[in-house]
Amino acid sequence: MLGTRRYALAFLEHGTRLLHITGVTAHPTRDWTVKQARNLASELGARMESLRFLLRDRDGKYGDAFDAVFEAEELRVIATAPSSADERAVRTDHRQHPP
After folding, report:
1. pLDDT tens digits, 55-91
2. Taking Cα atoms as reference points, which of 19, 17, 22 lies closest to residue 7?
3. How far apart are the C-alpha atoms of 2 and 31, rounded to whole Å?
4. Stretch (H or E) spanning 30
5. 56 in Cβ contact with 80 (< 8 Å)
6. pLDDT reading at 11 higher than 60
7. What backbone torsions phi and psi does residue 66 show, to the nearest 5 degrees?
8. Is 83 helix (H, G, I), strand (E, B) or coil?
9. Percent of the chain beyond pLDDT 70?
10. Which of 25, 36, 76, 93 is deepest in the core (most CB within 10 A)?
11. pTM of the predicted model, to two decimals?
12. Best CA proximity match to 52, nearest among 33, 72, 74
């Protein structure tokens, strides 16, 4: 539908630069992201052994169950640092509205 926002979950293999788009939805949830993680693990099968870590952001849609899919494949899950853009917005707001 034109104008409807969609979200895609994509995984990029750094070494090969292969992009895996596991799913697209209008309403991503924790359950949906876990399903996509399982789909990727199933799709890659034995190739998962060549991967060492998963780098992801801190979005609440990635919970313990999402991480567990990759940890079960012996990948180290690394969450990125808190967003500096969020921190910048707080500082900007603070400057506009002094205490």
Report:
1. 999 999 999 999 999 999 999 999 988 865 555 554 4
2. 22
3. 26
4. helix 30-44
5. yes
6. yes
7. -60, -50
8. coil
9. 82
10. 36
11. 0.76
12. 74
